[in-house]
Specification:
The protein contains six helices and nine strands; from the N terminus they run βαββαββααβαβαββ. A hairpin with a 6-residue loop joins strand 8 and strand 9. The strands form three sheets. Strands 1-3-2 form a three-stranded antiparallel β-sheet. Strands 4-5-6 form a three-stranded mixed β-sheet. The protein has a three-stranded antiparallel β-sheet with strand order 7-9-8. With 205 residues, the chain is of the alpha+beta class. It is extended and about 75 Å long.
Length: 205
């Protein structure tokens, strides 16, 4: 992240907005130093700042270097959603990037998240997909969750799903939120963390 200094915070933000061609409310910043003198002649404010565009450029550059070092030709598309960055990759051999059971893709995602979070000093929500692999996977886990939830609701017996990564568990939690008669909980640690779909007796109105 870059640092900026001006006489007042308002001046700093206006300068950043002008440089980046964005609105002031689109700037994320942290005040690093503020100097005030008795007469005000030496006043200054120094901030560290970035925008969503800075994050997108960092992701693109980071992955570009990453795949160049691996001698992999990969196209990179970054889609900015409301509170998330969706990174879509595509290569001649997508299977190599995905890996067995999506393990390589998860590793790439974790490395990228760590780099982004460390650089911008905040938790940035992002998902990395390869030729819609994750979207297809999300549809599959939703289908499985719905089938198991119906069985739990019918039998009144709780059921545990197979271990899965955090993003897939999150999809299931959200998907079954309004599914009557059941609730979901994550249990286990590390690679064994999984979702348990539990029966909930519906209250009669």
């Amino acid at each position: 992240m870059k640092t900026y200094t001006a006489k007042t915070l308002e001046d700093v933000l206006n300068n950043i907005a002008k440089e980046k061609g964005c609105k002031i409310e689109e700037i994320n910043y942290e005040v690093l130093e503020e100097k005030k003198t008795l007469l005000g002649f030496g006043n200054s404010v120094t901030v560290e700042a970035y925008t969503k565009q800075d994050i997108k450029e960092f992701i693109f550059d980071y992955l570009g270097t990453y795949f160049t070092e691996l001698n992999q030709a990969v196209s990179i598309e970054i889609i900015t959603e409301e509170n998330m960055f969706k990174v879509v990759l595509d290569a001649e051999n997508n299977a190599i990037i995905i890996g067995k059971g999506g393990q390589t893709l998860r590793a790439i995602t974790n490395v990228l998240k760590g780099a982004v979070n460390n650089t911008f000093k905040k938790r940035v929500n992002l998902v990395v997909d390869v030729n819609n692999y994750k979207e297809d996977r999300y549809r599959k886990v939703k289908h499985i969750a719905a089938r198991v939830a119906k069985e739990v609701r019918k039998s009144h017996i709780d059921a545990a799903l197979d271990p899965m990564p955090n993003d897939e568990r999150k999809v299931i939690h959200q998907y079954l939120t309004d599914f009557k008669g059941v609730r979901t909980e994550s249990e286990g640690e590390g690679g064994k963390r999984h979702i348990v779909i539990k029966y909930v007796e519906e209250k009669s109105e």
